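Question (not urgent): is this output format expected?
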Amino acid sequence: MKILKNGVSALVILTLTFSYAQEKIKLNHDHSKMEMKQTPIEFSNENVAYAYEHYEHVKNDLVGSNPGDAQKGAEMLNEALGKVEGADAALSASQKIAATDFLKVQRKAFSELSTEMEALLRGKITSGKLYKDFCPMALNGGAYWLSSVGDIRNPYYGAQMLSCGKVAEVIE
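Got this back:
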């Protein structure tokens, strides 16, 4: 009987622990990677489209403050940018992100990357909109980033100041 009681007690404790863990996962679910109102964007160049896809990956990982994932995304972006003519400066910035898992360094390099990606993407959008967002508090003077959504998801501060910034320009 004592063994049965101990078994039941262990089962109850295990069930409560599992329920608690499931609830904690729900509470800690990271909504920073969820992007609302995404506008499909099409580009005139397949390689540019592929590079932008990986740029978004890096941006979303910085929004979520995930330096390891941002590093992996930058490695994929490096490969994509290698196939885009005139992308040397963007590739250089992306390589800085791929070379470190230090979030502060990645975010500074992301600012450079965003400037270079804008230059690559302008004039190549055939459908959809690209939002050029700005955070006046980022990097001691403000910094821009590109997004396919109108909602602000700040890659420079992540959850700390997720919606800090504004849409500075819509690029079509």
